[in-house]
């Protein structure tokens, strides 16, 4: 374990965090809010810490997968803690665990909140919460990688540890270029959304906050009723963009570079669209009677499904009162999540596709033991090794889920609340059902449960392994 | 530059390693997923699992935007086909590895017809290097510049050599003033020395001098340099064949020991003048009866690195002859430095160095191209030859005034056919050929020598 290089990279991350912290200061200046001062102080602390850690460039540049995982996990933890400082010291979130919960929820693009009364929160903090979604969506390490020149091949271990999805593909030969392209697509789509919403007549501050929160598929709302009070047109715009940010970014890359045949080969995107449309149609039919007309039924159904499937977590309606079938489907898409390589959370469609293919292969093998068939994904052979690793990911996922669920049951809530709260955090969705439903918050859970949720959110965003490795004693051994 | 490499075997891997270090955009195509996984887990490259000769795969790799395609799969035919398709589809230069002796005579025809920019035959290139070493029996490494008019020779300093204890600025007292010591290897260290540096026994020094002075240098250094008359080659692979063929041309007696009977017969047909012995290369009694104690030089070229190293160590002990050892897979250079082996030859490293030289020259379109590039001292030092263009920044100042990089030495200037060993008062002029020795790997323009 090369501790020196870990400290060095962590230092760089903190220096970047200090730059991010300056953005809410600008908001504070515009709205003349005193809370900006706390952001400025935190930025200074963060810069000082960062400079302290990265003052000496380590001589030993050895950096392998283990270091990559540890750096990513530690960066995210320190990012969340530093980000929580202004919330806590400004007194707007008086409990330190709550403040950290809020920021972890922000950076992991979960959007689960412990703030009951959003109207009392200052604009700077509202912006900071939304911005944390944006930076967390594509990943802070990817961001740094796109900007800083870092030691060539080692970057891969970092990008792998931070990116979502079972197999991280590069778009172009160089990691740095790949990171740049990803952020360019990300920024362009975000700007597109800001423009679309501003044309629809949304005030600029809300426009920016909602757009960056949607881009990261986060879901922190600006009002207690989330998106419900916006016009249908605005709700449709948000629906479309939530859907767009759930698509694998390499799809956009291939489209931009006119590699259409390759783009339409992506099975994951195909299944994402099919699943989305099917669930929307089913829920629309199911809630038709409740809504009274097709337009409303379709709009609310399309919005809620896009929101939960892309794990954003905005809501336009209290779906608590929807029929059980619809709630069941919503819970289902919370688990499937969207495409790998997008900003969304969840298990990811690609993993489900791979597991489904693996199951089919195994069953066929029972019938024809000598049968040999190569499983393919996106027109390419899928090795048994990758089917195996996805299956194992599944098992760990379920184990963590069950473990968290058991701890959370101590709160005394009903089964629905506990189950969906855990699934909402581990899938980075945001709202759950029952006592943590769309109109409620996570404030009432015990501190222990909140810590479990914090862990779950990080596990969900970093795809389990970095956080798990952090807990393994053998990670820290030098030999 | 955007480079596509087809095949990531040993040469491919070395190439990827070095070209990615130099900052090129690399896309690797191979059919073996495991090999690709190994490459992509350790280097920043783009991997495509597929058949390099398929047009679709090449398109996926971005052949249209590529500057260069290098095909180094096991098969010559696949390599040539890859390059042919690449040439037709894209607008890139192509390099193919063509190694079969059958194609040897047709290489220029193939190059022309397939539009190859370069066809490299690793075994023949390695054999050429070895045969050059045999011409300078006392040298550990020999490289040439300025179309063979300047040589860079690496020799070991033994106890009692005139070089032992010499301060470099006094070298003119014992050798020609045109001799320049440019690299000293002491233990694991590689030093680019200045005038106050003192040589010691045990050092390996590399000197640059005009080729016509090399034999007198050896005489003055009291290094025995009796010409090599007989060479024993262990292993009858392709490299051995090429080496034997070249040595025979210069009248050296060649004896090849090969284990496989059929191969022995083939060799005997190909090399009628050589003596082909059928037997194991590690059979001591066979070696002794075939006269390993009397041979002038031994080239250990079997497929097994371990066998080659052992054989060399034995030959050193039994005969103290000049040895050349092929080591391709083992890369414990630190350990091998300590062993008593004269020259270690790696076919893949030589191949990679040739291709990289081409890439560097291609990269630079100004005209102060790298003309020659040699990687010496386990690839830790590069010796490059540049042509100075008219508007280069280095023109018009004396070397003393130029802010040269550290660990860099301007060793030789060739101006209008004259070879100059530069001092601080010399200036670089447009049109000059300049040889630079440096540990700063990766220079590709003459102006890069400046700080």
Give a topology summary.
The complex is a heterodimer of chains A (479) and B (451).
Chain A: H1 3-31, H2 36-53, H3 65-89, H4 96-107, H5 123-138, H6 140-147, H7 155-162, H8 175-199, H9 204-215, H10 232-244, H11 249-256, H12 260-265, H13 267-291, H14 294-309, H15 324-336, H16 349-367, E1 376-377, E2 380-381, H17 384-408, H18 415-426, H19 447-461, H20 465-471, H21 473-476
Antiparallel strand pairs in A: 1-2
Helix pairs in contact in A: 1-2, 1-3, 1-5, 2-3, 3-4, 3-7, 3-20, 4-5, 4-19, 5-9, 6-8, 8-9, 8-10, 8-11, 10-14, 13-14, 13-15, 14-15, 16-17, 17-18, 17-19, 18-19
Chain B: E1 2-6, H1 10-21, E2 25-30, H2 33-42, E3 46-49, H3 55-60, E4 68-71, H4 76-89, E5 93-97, H5 101-104, H6 107-114, E6 118-120, H7 122-135, E7 141-145, E8 150-156, H8 171-174, E9 180-186, E10 189-191, E11 204-210, H9 214-220, E12 230-234, H10 238-249, E13 253-258, H11 261-270, E14 275-278, H12 284-289, E15 297-300, H13 305-318, E16 322-326, H14 333-338, E17 343-345, H15 347-363, E18 370-376, E19 381-387, E20 408-415, E21 418-420, E22 433-438
Helix pairs in contact in B: 1-15, 7-10, 7-15
């Amino acid at each position: 374990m090369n501790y020196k290089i870990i400290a060095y990279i962590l230092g760089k991350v903190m220096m970047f965090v200090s730059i991010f912290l300056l953005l809410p200061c600008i908001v504070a200046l515009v709205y003349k809010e005193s809370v900006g001062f706390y952001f400025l102080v935190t930025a200074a602390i963060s810069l000082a810490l960062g400079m302290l850690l990265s003052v000496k460039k380590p001589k030993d540049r050895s950096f392998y997968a283990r270091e990559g995982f540890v750096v990513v996990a530690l960066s995210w933890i320190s990012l969340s803690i530093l980000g929580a400082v202004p919330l806590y010291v400004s007194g707007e979130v008086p409990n330190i665990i709550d403040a950290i919960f809020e920021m972890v929820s922000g950076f992991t693009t979960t959007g689960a909140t412990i703030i009951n009364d959003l109207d009392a929160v200052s604009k700077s903090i509202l912006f900071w919460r939304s911005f944390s979604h944006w930076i967390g969506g594509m990943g802070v390490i990817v961001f740094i990688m796109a900007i800083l020149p870092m030691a060539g091949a080692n970057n891969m271990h970092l990008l792998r540890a931070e990116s979502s999805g079972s197999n991280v593909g590069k778009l172009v030969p160089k990691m740095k270029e790949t990171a740049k392209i990803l952020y360019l697509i990300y920024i362009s789509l975000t700007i597109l959304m800001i423009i679309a919403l501003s044309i629809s007549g949304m005030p600029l501050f809300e426009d920016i906050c909602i757009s960056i929160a949607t881009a990261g598929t986060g879901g922190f709302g600006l009002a207690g009723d989330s998106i419900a009070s916006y016009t249908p047109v605005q709700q449709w715009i948000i629906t479309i963009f939530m859907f767009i940010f759930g698509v694998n970014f390499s799809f956009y890359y291939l489209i931009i570079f006119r590699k259409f045949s390759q783009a339409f080969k992506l099975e994951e995107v195909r299944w994402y669209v099919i699943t989305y449309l099917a669930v929307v149609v089913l829920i629309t039919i199911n809630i038709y009677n409740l809504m009274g007309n097709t337009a409303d039924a379709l709009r609310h159904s399309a919005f809620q499904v896009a929101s939960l499937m892309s794990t954003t977590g905005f809501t336009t309606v209290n779906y608590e009162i929807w029929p059980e079938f619809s709630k069941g489907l919503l819970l289902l898409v919370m688990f499937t999540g969207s495409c790998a390589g997008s900003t969304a959370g969840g298990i990811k469609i690609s993993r489900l596709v791979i597991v489904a293919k693996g199951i089919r292969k195994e069953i066929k093998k029972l019938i024809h033991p000598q049968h040999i068939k190569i499983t393919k994904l996106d027109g390419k052979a899928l090795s048994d090794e990758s089917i195996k690793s996805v299956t194992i990911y599944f098992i760990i996922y379920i184990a963590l889920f069950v473990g968290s669920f058991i701890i959370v049951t101590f709160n005394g809530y009903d089964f629905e609340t506990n189950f969906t709260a855990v699934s909402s955090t581990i899938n980075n969705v945001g709202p759950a059902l029952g006592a943590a439903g769309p109109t409620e918050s996570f404030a009432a859970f015990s501190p222990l449960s909140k810590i479990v949720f914090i862990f779950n959110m990080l596990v969900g965003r970093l795809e389990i392994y970095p956080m798990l490795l952090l807990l393994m004693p053998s990670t820290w051994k030098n030999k | 530059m955007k480079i596509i490499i087809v095949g990531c075997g040993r040469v491919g891997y070395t190439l990827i390693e070095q070209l990615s270090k130099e900052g090129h955009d690399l896309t690797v195509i191979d059919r073996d997923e495991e090999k690709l996984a190994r490459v992509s887990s350790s280097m920043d490259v783009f991997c495509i699992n597929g058949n390099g000769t398929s047009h679709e795969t090449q398109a996926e790799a971005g052949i249209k935007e590529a500057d260069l395609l290098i095909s180094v799969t096991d098969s010559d035919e696949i390599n040539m086909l890859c390059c042919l398709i690449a040439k037709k589809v894209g607008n890139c230069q192509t390099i193919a590895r063509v190694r079969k002796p059958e194609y040897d005579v047709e290489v220029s025809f193939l190059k022309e017809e397939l539009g190859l920019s370069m066809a490299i035959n690793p075994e023949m290139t390695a054999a050429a290097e070895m045969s050059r070493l045999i011409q300078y029996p006392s040298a550990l490494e020999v490289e040439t510049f300025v179309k063979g008019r300047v040589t860079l020779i690496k020799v070991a300093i033994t106890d009692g050599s005139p070089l032992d204890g010499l301060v470099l600025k006094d070298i003119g007292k014992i050798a020609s003033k045109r001799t320049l010591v440019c690299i000293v290897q002491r233990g694991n260290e590689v030093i680019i020395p200045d005038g106050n540096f003192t040589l010691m026994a045990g050092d390996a020094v590399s000197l640059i001098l005009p080729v016509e002075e090399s034999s007198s240098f050896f005489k003055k250094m009291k290094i025995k340099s009796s010409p090599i008359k007989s060479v024993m080659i262990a292993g009858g692979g392709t490299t051995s064949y090429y080496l034997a063929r070249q040595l025979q041309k210069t009248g050296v007696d060649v004896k090849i020991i090969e284990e496989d009977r059929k191969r022995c017969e083939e060799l005997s047909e190909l090399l009628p003048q050589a003596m082909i012995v059928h037997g194991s290369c590690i059979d001591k009694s066979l070696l002794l009866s075939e006269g390993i104690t009397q041979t002038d030089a031994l080239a250990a070229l079997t497929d097994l690195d371990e066998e080659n190293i052992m054989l060399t160590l034995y030959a050193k002990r039994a005969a103290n002859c000049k040895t050349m050892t092929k080591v391709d897979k083992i890369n414990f250079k630190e350990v091998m430095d300590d062993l008593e082996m004269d020259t270690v030859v790696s076919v893949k490293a030589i191949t990679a160095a040739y291709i990289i030289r081409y890439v560097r020259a291609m990269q630079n379109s100004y005209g102060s191209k790298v003309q020659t590039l040699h990687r010496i001292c386990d690839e830790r030092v590069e010796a490059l030859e540049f042509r100075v263009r008219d508007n280069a920044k280095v023109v018009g100042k004396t070397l003393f005034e130029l802010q040269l990089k550290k660990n860099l030495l301007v060793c030789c200037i060739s101006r209008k056919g004259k070879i100059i060993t530069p001092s601080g008062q010399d200036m670089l002029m447009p049109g000059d050929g300049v040889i630079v020795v440096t540990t700063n790997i990766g220079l590709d323009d003459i102006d890069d020598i400046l700080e």
